[in-house]
């Protein structure tokens, strides 16, 4: 008889829908999921044995939900950063006794950009761009702070990135040339952020970005294939930064603009950070404690930031092509014996569909928004029907969507994504686009150039030019 396994899933959006999907596809176990969710996500509601909406994902409420179902739950898995940073693993493991897949609070290094830079400085300093940490306590007046900042900007020739220490503290990350073009604008951003805590001002790095993710059981780091995220809202990388409008993965481990050596260097770098952080309590680094945004410069790679969780959308490029049973992968992460995972040799492309106000679209392109459709239900059936044509090669993952009665509505954030799987990036892209085009209603829109030949060729050319500058 097949063993029944209960899994607690802490869910924010499509990343966790993909986790639920990977768990429910288990063939070795009969999986029951208990979802603590940000909203009534239609996919999760349908698949969960129990589903609870905890809209702010606060640790106390999640813990109560876990406690109420603890006899049925074997382990938990966490996608979003907030509960991880707030210490969900420590609290549930201590109070409820359920092993959790995510780092402990102390090892969730996503919590502080300053601590990350200092950690890299100790373990692998060459990945840091030139940076300086500013603290309001060091300055008696605004003028004094401005003088110190401008002196640093002289050294950086103004090409700077302003990063508040804490995620979402005051203003977010600001970039020279994108968010400000004058020192006065940069100072305004900096000064606003400084009221909330320390601020890093670092050199703006030119290059091509890739996302590195690795499963970790506390003892071993198991690198997952490289992916490319599309952060900007609009085609041709225009518009404001978003959570990520889509992503792609090539058939193998590296991206078309990277070399094998680039990838090997990344693995060496992340292992050095891992070795530095590992302690006798080495189970603390469980889950995906290293989801690293690398910038490839043509010389040595630099790290933009590290997150302590799976990437959204990047993990959707990986989970659908796992060859192994994801429940076994999870058990191995908990037991400390995950040394490798096998994936299909396939390319994957994720495209998100988002509501009209997301990423400032309605304001930038009012003529493109079908006003009659705003706030109307979204019809996913035709996208799901495509699985009759493509089988396992298409996945539709609702994110910021709510089930009301029998109808599904888009909320404010990224609404739904479609993953295409193929023998080439182009095939995977076609499936993903066919899927998003089949989703009707709600005035949703998407980027049309995710993983396009033009976009990828541009990245390849850019890297060739950067390598020549060596
Ligand atoms: N893809 C961006 C993020 O997960 O933070």
Q: How would you describe this protein?
A:
The strands form six sheets. The chain has a five-stranded parallel beta sheet, sandwiched between helices. Strands 12-15-18-22-19 form a five-stranded antiparallel beta sheet. α3 (59-68) packs parallel to α5 (88-95). The chain has 15 helices and 22 strands. The model has no long low-confidence stretch (mean pLDDT 96). A hairpin with a 2-residue loop joins β20 (401-404) and β21 (407-410). With 470 residues, the chain is α+β, with helices and mostly antiparallel strands. Glycine binds next to loops. Residues 229, 243-244, 307, 311-312, 314 line the site of glycine (GLY).
Structure, briefly:
This protein is an alpha+beta fold. The chain contains 15 helices and 22 strands.
Keywords:
single chain; 470 residues; Rossmann fold; Dna Ligase, domain 1; D-amino Acid Aminotransferase, Chain A, domain 1; 5-stranded antiparallel beta sheet; 15 helices; binds glycine
Break the fold down into its secondary structure elements and pairings.
Blueprint: E1 3-11, H1 14-24, E2 29-37, H2 42-47, E3 48-53, H3 59-68, E4 75-78, H4 81-85, H5 88-95, E5 100-101, H6 113-123, E6 131-134, H7 142-156, E7 160-164, E8 174-175, H8 183-194, E9 199-203, E10 208-217, E11 221-223, E12 228-229, E13 232-234, E14 238-241, E15 246-249, H9 260-277, E16 286-296, E17 302-307, H10 326-335, E18 347-353, H11 361-364, H12 381-385, H13 387-390, E19 394-398, E20 401-404, E21 407-410, E22 416-422, H14 425-438, H15 453-468
Parallel strand pairs: 1-2, 1-4, 2-3, 4-5
Antiparallel strand pairs: 6-9, 7-8, 7-9, 10-11, 10-16, 12-15, 13-14, 15-18, 16-17, 18-22, 19-22, 20-21
Bound molecules: glycine.
């Amino acid at each position: 008889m097949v063993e029944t396994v209960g899994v607690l899933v802490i869910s924010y959006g499509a990343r966790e829908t993909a986790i639920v999907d990977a768990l429910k596809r288990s063939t070795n176990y009969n999986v029951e999921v208990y979802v603590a969710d940000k909203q009534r996500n239609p996919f999760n509601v349908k698949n969960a044995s129990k589903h609870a909406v905890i809209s702010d994902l606060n640790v106390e409420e999640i813990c109560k939900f876990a406690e109420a179902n603890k006899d049925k739950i074997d382990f938990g898995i966490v996608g979003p950063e907030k509960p991880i940073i707030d210490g969900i693993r420590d609290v549930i493991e201590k109070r409820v006794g359920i092993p959790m897949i995510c780092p402990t609070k102390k090892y969730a290094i996503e919590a502080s950009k300053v601590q990350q830079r200092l950690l890299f400085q100790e373990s692998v300093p060459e990945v840091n761009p030139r940076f300086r940490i500013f603290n309001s306590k060091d300055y008696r007046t605004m003028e004094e702070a401005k003088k110190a900042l401008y002196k640093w900007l002289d050294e950086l020739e103004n090409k700077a990135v302003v990063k508040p220490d804490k995620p979402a503290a005051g203003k977010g990350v600001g970039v020279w040339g994108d968010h400000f073009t004058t020192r006065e604008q940069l100072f305004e951003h900096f000064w606003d952020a400084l009221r909330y805590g320390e601020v890093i001002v670092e050199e703006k790095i030119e290059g091509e970005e890739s996302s590195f993710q690795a499963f970790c059981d506390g003892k071993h780091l198991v690198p997952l294939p490289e992916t490319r995220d599309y952060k900007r809202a609009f085609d041709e990388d225009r518009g404001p930064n978003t959570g990520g409008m889509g992503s792609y993965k090539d058939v193998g481990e590296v991206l078309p603009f990277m070399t094998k050596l680039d990838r090997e260097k990344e693995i060496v770098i992340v292992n050095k950070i891992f070795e530095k952080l590992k302690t006798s309590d080495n189970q603390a680094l469980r889950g995906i404690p290293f989801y690293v945004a690398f910038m490839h410069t043509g010389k040595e790679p630099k790290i933009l930031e590290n997150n302590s969780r799976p990437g959204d959308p990047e993990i959707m490029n990986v989970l659908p092509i796992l060859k192994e049973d994801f429940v076994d992968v999870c058990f191995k992460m908990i037991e400390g014996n995950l040394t490798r995972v096998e994936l299909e040799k396939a390319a994957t492309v994720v495209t998100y569909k988002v509501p009209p106000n997301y990423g400032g679209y309605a304001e930038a392109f009012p003529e493109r928004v079908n006003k009659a459709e705003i706030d109307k239900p979204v019809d996913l059936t035709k996208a799901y029907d495509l699985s009759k044509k493509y089988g396992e090669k298409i996945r539709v993952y609702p994110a910021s969507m709510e089930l009301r009665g029998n109808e599904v509505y888009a909320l404010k954030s990224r609404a739904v994504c479609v993953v295409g799987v193929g023998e080439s990036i182009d095939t995977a892209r076609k499936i993903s686009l066919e899927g998003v085009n089949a989703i009707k209603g709600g005035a949703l829109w998407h980027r049309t150039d995710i993983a396009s030949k033009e976009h990828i060729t541009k990245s390849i050319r850019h890297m060739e030019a950067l390598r020549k500058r060596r």
